[in-house]
Amino acid sequence: MKTQTKFFAKWAAFALVPAVGVPLLRSMGIVNDYYHQVLMMIGVNAVLSVSLGLVNGFSGQFSLGHAGFMGIGAYIAAVLTSKAAALPFLPATIIGGLAAGVVGYGVGIPAFQVRGDYLAVITLALNMIVVNLAQNINYVGGPRGFPGIIPFTNFPWIWLWLVLCIVVIRNLIFSGHGRAIMSIRENEVAAQLGGIDVQKYKLVAFSIACFFAGVAGSLSAHMLQFIAPQNFNIFKTFDILVMVYLGGSGSISGCLLGAIIWTAMLEALRDLGVWRLVVGPILLIVLMVFRQKGLFGAREFSFVRGEQP
Q: What residues make up the domain containing 208?
């Protein structure tokens, strides 16, 4: 009972302290608007990184279309809140996430019928399709972008969605289903011979990741109040990949840490202009040479690992 109480107390502190503390510090003038914006960007990127880590890290697949699923959620939620139905932010965000998840499920059915790099190829193609569709649909602004999105997103919204993302993926990974997913990563043939429905578990992991990518898209759209097709191109996917592998693809904590470091570093190097984009590839090369499993490896923060109640 004492262990369970300590476990839930840690999670309650993780969920509530930043959600309450950051707005409080902002109202007191300790956190200015710029740092508040950076913290919100870190939160959105953390949702993207942790969700992609479920696919590329824990299930052993390789997706190159996470930004495309982010774009699906962003455009659908923005249309629902700002144009078509004037829906409240929460249901619009959920619908955007579900749309991304359903598309991910549909993409995964043919992709997971075969082994190899087919998922990477198909998700890369999907990313390009999403960008090109957005560029050619005038209703959402086409190549000019979609302005005038209502600024519903704030730090508590982002943080609570991040906590939900971590909780869902953490509970999945530490369950029997999670062990099945990780067994596929280790040896797909052996997992199948052991009676595991490989395609089913691949689809579960991939669909959950796509759902949270769509949610992150909605959060980003309603934070920036503007989206354009180029916001969701392959370079955005590369950014997410860097976050995942920087922290450690086989760790929820590593993905979270990678998002924090990468986002903060890009902001710190903003004055370098385009040269800051050179830092990423150099960092990845150094990382692959000296720390192949990322900065955090497969370790987890104690509150994430915890004692399972």
A: 2-234
